[in-house]
Specification:
Layout lengths: L1 H9 L1 H11 L1 H4 L6 H14 L10 H21 L4 H12 L6 H7 L4 H25 L8 H29 L1 H8 L4 H23 L4 H28 L3 H9 L3 H10 L7 H24 L1
């Protein structure tokens, strides 16, 4: 059993993609339950954070501005030519930092506190920004701005902010409960792996059902690669100015793509746009694998 667990941990991406692709017919129906898993994942992740070290910095501010403003700029730059491509690209930029970013930052020798803090800040920022931005981008729903705003808010805000509020309250008033939750923090990895399987299955299902999206799918994959590389590059470049190069790159480049896939479906975007986030899963893991390889070699 230990060897099986070790194998899954080592090749999580490969295992998840294989199960998701081959078993998409039986797994994709679990997408509606993904929010519960993401909620628990964030709850377990936030319990591991030291709130005394969660201090906003200028680096955090620059990264936030790049994600929020950059996502809008990307959308409106591409939308006149291809709306689906614009939606997919926009999701790849505004998507919050992955909960695993702090772990990878530590393995690469970076400042874990910076990545952990930004993970929290960007989740809160996105919970506020998405309900405001998505209705303006007409996510495919013929309803009023106010209705769509509250509809999206009801789905996004509790999912991203409530885990933080719960951890904050238990940490201050119920330390024993907080300690108990923290004791299960290791389960976040397995929840992430399961969510990854569901996300890949849903993307595969969409790809097979869409008969006319061949060119758009290729463009989504190409643009997600370009955006992935650029975000790692800009994150590292800005991070270098604050002596935080590794954390800057991981904070901006490594995305919670599982949440991104879910957002596409929940916010009324064209389902095919999820292919952008789906391929981003591969690109960011390839980049991280290369970085870890270089780190180990050096």
């Amino acid at each position: 059993m230990e060897k099986i667990i070790a194998f899954i941990k080592k090749y999580t991406l490969l295992v998840a993609m294989t199960i998701g692709i081959l078993g998409y017919k039986w797994v994709s129906f679990l997408l509606p339950y993904t929010p519960v898993l993401i909620f628990v994942m964030l709850l377990l992740t936030f319990t591991k954070l030291s709130f005394e070290n969660l201090k906003p910095t200028l680096l955090h501010l620059w990264l936030l501005l790049i994600q929020i403003i950059g996502s809008v700029a990307v959308y409106y730059a591409i939308a006149p030519f291809n709306t689906v491509l614009a939606q997919g690209a926009m999701i790849c930029v505004i998507c919050p930092t992955a909960t695993a970013a702090a772990v990878i930052t530590g393995k690469l020798g970076g400042k874990v506190e910076t990545a952990a803090s930004y993970t929290l800040f960007i989740n809160i920022a996105v919970a506020i920004a998405i309900p405001l931005l998505f209705p303006l981008m007409n996510g495919g729903k013929e309803i009023t701005f106010g209705t769509l705003f509250f509809e999206i808010s009801a789905k996004i805000v509790p999912l991203l902010i409530l885990p933080f509020v719960i951890v904050l309250i238990t940490n201050k008033f119920f330390p024993k409960v907080n300690k108990k939750i923290k004791s299960y923090s290791g389960a976040a990895f397995y929840l992430w792996a399961f969510c990854l399987v569901v996300a890949i299955a849903q993307v595969t299902d969409t790809f097979i059902k869409e008969k006319t999206g061949g060119v758009t799918v290729i463009l989504l994959c190409v643009f997600s690669l370009l955006l992935c590389v650029l975000q790692f590059f800009f994150g590292k470049s800005i991070g270098s100015k604050y002596d935080d190069r590794i954390a800057g790159g991981q904070s901006l480049g490594q995305k919670n793509t599982i949440l991104a896939v879910w957002l596409v479906y929940q916010c009324g975007f064209t389902p095919l746009a999820a292919m952008g986030a789906g391929s981003y899963i591969l690109w960011q893991n390839l980049i991280n694998s290369w970085q870890l390889y270089k780190r180990t070699k050096s």
